[in-house]
Write a structure and sequence with these properties.
alpha+beta; PH-domain like; 7-stranded antiparallel sheet; PH_bac; transmembrane; membrane; transmembrane helix; Transporter
């Protein structure tokens, strides 16, 4: 390899690295602006209860897909640490639903806030060929309705969460 080719390759590599850095910075800026726009609309999540009754369903292990602003299945919520996928467990209690996430705090969905629990094929950028996502539509204390998605590891467990009349 001669000096001209080496210098040309190094310049090309530097330009590509700068372009990649530029696009990553733009993605992070967009995500930060989404959080800023949603902070007031989302507000604070409901506090965890001191005690709960016996588990009615679950714990069901799976993947927390994310939360979206209802009824738009692809309008992802970034505020209040709701925008990141993680492994988790979903458990139903008489007082509500607990979604425990690894690497993030739990989400408590009070029973009086739950609007519907249904099966979905797609949510928050996750698409399946069957209705394998448990979508919980609920109202935040701020009054905003969101859908929280959870995909069980064992897809037969979806029927334990989704009732035919809902």
């Amino acid at each position: 390899m001669n000096d001209g080719t080496l210098i040309g390759s190094l310049i090309l590599a530097a330009v590509i690295a700068l372009l990649i850095g530029f696009f990553i910075r733009r993605l992070l800026t967009g995500w930060r602006h989404r959080i800023e726009r949603q902070v007031e609309m989302i507000g604070n999540l409901p506090p965890l209860p001191d005690t709960v009754g016996p588990a009615l369903a679950g714990p069901t292990k799976g993947l927390y897909v994310g939360s979206t602003i209802a009824p738009h299945w692809n309008d992802k919520v970034a505020a209040a640490a709701l925008g990141f996928r993680s492994k988790g467990a979903l458990t139903r209690y008489p007082e509500g639903i607990m979604l425990q996430r690894s690497g993030a705090g739990p989400i408590w969905i009070p029973d009086e806030s739950i609007v519907a629990v249904r099966g979905e094929r797609a949510m928050a950028g996750k698409a399946l060929t069957h209705e394998g996502i448990v979508a919980i539509r609920w109202t935040l204390p701020s009054g905003t309705e969101i859908d929280t998605g959870f995909r069980p590891d064992d897809r037969t467990e979806t029927k334990n969460w989704v009732k035919e009349d809902e």
